[in-house]
Specification:
The chain is mainly beta. It is built from two helices and 16 strands. The chain is globular and about 45 Å long. GO terms for molecular function: polygalacturonase activity.
Length: 182
């Protein structure tokens, strides 16, 4: 009898350990350096305020079923490149704003020359599928092409706010959305 109790206790311990696996963990990210670790080990991610280094992307290839909540302001260092500044990929993704925003700091790029001037990064690229949703996302000051939906399917966007009013006097033909191969 003691042998069976010990085996049952071991099975229960293994089951509890599996339930506490990092893939079920929640992660809060408050610096760019914490993004990769959160993406690889968590299925519930909260993005606080931080700055993405110049020439780098906030690239998140998420595990199926991941929820990302944006609570802070995410800004981007200046670099003339094609971007995108943000790229989100995965299946069954829930990506939602909760008081946070993405600020592309477009005023650093807007030279009044459009594609003939400075190289401006595209802002937010979506490559999701499987019933993914993006809700209540706030984009400010897109350097170039605010939203690019590439090779996405079964993805819904609702409640987005795109504010490029700071560029009213200097931007040139700022395109907001592109849906390629979707």
């Amino acid at each position: 009898m003691g042998k069976y109790v010990l085996q049952l206790a071991w099975v229960a311990a293994v089951a509890l350990a599996a339930g506490a696996s990092p893939l079920n963990a929640s992660c809060s990210v408050s610096s760019y350096d914490g993004v990769a670790s959160a993406v690889s080990s968590c299925t519930s991610i909260t993005l606080g305020s931080f700055t993405v280094p110049a020439g780098k992307a906030l690239s998140m290839s998420l595990k199926s079923g991941t929820t990302v909540t944006v609570t802070g302001t995410i800004k981007f260092g200046y670099s003339e490149w094609k971007g995108p500044l943000v790229e989100i990929a995965g299946s069954k993704i829930t990506f939602k704003g909760s008081g946070g925003s993405f600020d592309g700091e477009g005023s650093k790029y807007w030279d009044g020359k459009g594609d003939k001037g400075k190289t401006k990064p595209k802002f937010f690229r979506i490559k999701t599928s499987g019933g993914s949703t993006f809700s209540n996302i706030k984009l400010k000051n897109c350097p170039h092409q605010c939203v690019s939906i590439n090779s996405a399917s079964d993805t819904t966007l609702t409640g987005w706010t795109v504010d490029v009013s700071a560029g009213d006097s200097v931007s040139f033909s700022l395109r907001s959305t592109n849906t390629a191969a979707s």
